[in-house]
Amino acid sequence: MGDRKAVGVLTHRVTEMAQSAICMAVACVAESTGIFTILAKNTTPGTPSTYLTVNNIAEKGRLQPRYVLEICASLTFSGLISYDMETDKFYLDQAQRTVLNDPSFPLFQGGWFDILPALYQTTPILASATKDLTKLTGVPYEVQSKLGFSTGMDRMNAPGIKRSLVKKWLPQSAPHLVQRMKKGAKVADLGCGQGALALTLAKAFPTTTVDGIDIDKTSIAAANKQKAQQNLNNVTFKCVNMGAIPSHTYDIVFNHDCIHDLADPEGALRAICKSLKKDGTFFSMEPKTTGETLQECYKNTMGSDAAKKNLAFMYGMSTLHCTTVSCAQGGPGLGCATFGPKKYETLATRAGFTNFTLVGSNMLNNFYTMAPKHSSL
């Protein structure tokens, strides 16, 4: 059996992981049935008269009370909703309503309720790909997207992009690009997803024209819907492969967290390089990493349980999404966990870029600028 203490510690850890996974599954049900929204709209922290009973919630959401009780009890003990024992009623405190039900909050976490079901539903495909010794394959992005992954990523990323891209990230890391877009520029957002970055730029810089480009039809349809809602005329969304973007067209190209997911990252970088005008700039946001090999990551997280948990998460996302969507297209599966500055610079240099520079970062991503050879950047 081995060391009894070690067995006990590991058993406890696995149990904790299972508990968290089950509680998040319940939270996904709460999100999809509208329970968080019902509580956010109808209750006020500190005002018990507004709190809701199980039957109140069930009536407002046209839900089965028996399930509402079990769901709300689980959420209460998870800390995701609040319970008033004196009145036997539920409500959301300020932190809960901000983190779970305010899509404008930069640290809004509601996207996980779309992302996690999509990833779990595709694990059988991933398992089959792992067993396939005839070829390296995986889960196509469009499969995960149709299951809600792209919507979840937009819900997670869009609030921070809308709040910080123009006001903080660009002014602090590449102020010359802000000035260029104020004067009017031709810009592309590659791997635009549901359009948060492209729409943010188009709104902030009305004399600049923006092309949002993505290969996923589901994402482009959602982006066009948001464009219509915002009534913006200086942004266009196109469902095309990055390799097909026109040459010598753009003053600035942006990307957010997608180069490492691609089937042919070097080929895409080569196409991006060619798409830029002589004095053009590629502003790229890619994952912030702890190391660029497993050995580096292991060394750099020794003595820190928090760092180890983050790496477990990064390698997990890499396995369930980043690596597999690349391998599904015959790609190298670079993954997100170790795609750091050295690896990226090597790819970018081979693709024809120069002046590769790490210019800034946020909590999750490094910010890089690079330019075609012979640029004045």
Distance between the termini: 62 Å
Number of strand elements: 9
Biggest sheet, strands in spatial order?
5-4-3-6-7-9-8
Q: Classify the beta-strand content into a percent band.
A: 15-25%
The assigned structural class equals alpha/beta
Structure, described:
With 377 residues, the protein is an alpha/beta fold. The protein contains 16 helices and 9 strands. The chain has a 7-stranded mixed sheet, with helices on both faces. A two-stranded antiparallel sheet has the order 1-2. The radius of gyration is 23 Å and the shape is globular.
Short description:
The chain has 377 residues and is an alpha/beta fold.
What brief labels describe this structure?
two-stranded antiparallel ribbon; 16 helices; 377 residues; alpha/beta; 7-stranded mixed beta sheet
